[in-house]
Amino acid sequence: MIKRAQKLDVLLSKEQLDQRCQQLGTQISEDYRGEELHVIAVLKGSFMFLADLVRQIDLDVSIDFLGLSSYGSRRETSGVVRMTSDLALPIEGRHVLVVEDIIDSGLTMNYLLENLKTRRPASIAICTLLNKGTNRHIDVPIEYVGFDIDDEFVIGYGLDDAEFSRHLPYIGVVRQESET
Ligand code: PRP
Asked: Which of 54, 67, 94, 157 is deepest in the core (most CB within 10 A)?
């Protein structure tokens, strides 16, 4: 039994997530028609979204991973982005699509974009499953957004609560203790 899941309200169901991945995959396939696409997934949070999204992309796709962390076990950004693992492959001359689970303050994505630009890709675009625009510190250009969400603490489908609950197949909102 998963005790932590009992304190959640479902914000986005598996069916909603599946449907949006299909729509995004179709849109990306049309936008990059005739090109090869190099997908970079930002670990850890994006792993489940990545797996569902790339299965909906009808292009020649290569995939690489990069680890970034700025929250640790806290619910507020530390403001310091840490690279926990670098890419394995060069991106020079490639059309890069960065896949994220959530963009909140924008600090992580801003850091990543500045870093990736120095590696001279042909193009960079961003796809995020969730866009929490209420707390944006730095503006970042986002080409593909799954869902715009309010300022709530969301977990599941890759997103964690102190490293737990990433495996849930839906996105949940943590209920306040007084509501339980
Ligand atoms: C989360 C998420 C993004 C970042 C977004 O990562 O995956 O990378 O925060 O927040 P921001 O826009 O305020 O910078 P986190 O540091 O929690 O690491 P994780 O993906 O390993 O959970």
From this structure: 157
- Residue ranges of the alpha helices (H) in the chain? 14-31, 47-54, 107-117
Distance 2 CA to ligand 1 centre (A): 24
The whole-model pTM stands at 0.94
Mean pLDDT of 20-47: 98
For ligand 1, mutation pick of 66, 84, 102, 113 (most atoms within 8 Å of CB):
102
For residue 14, is the peptide bond before it cis, meaning its omega torsion is within 30 degrees of 0? no
CATH (one of 3.40.50.150, 3.40.50.2300, 3.40.50.970, 3.40.50.2020) for 7-175: 3.40.50.2020
Residue in 81, 51, 66 with CA at minimum distance from that of residue 124: 66
Q: Whose CA is nearest to atom 2 of ligand 1?
A: 102
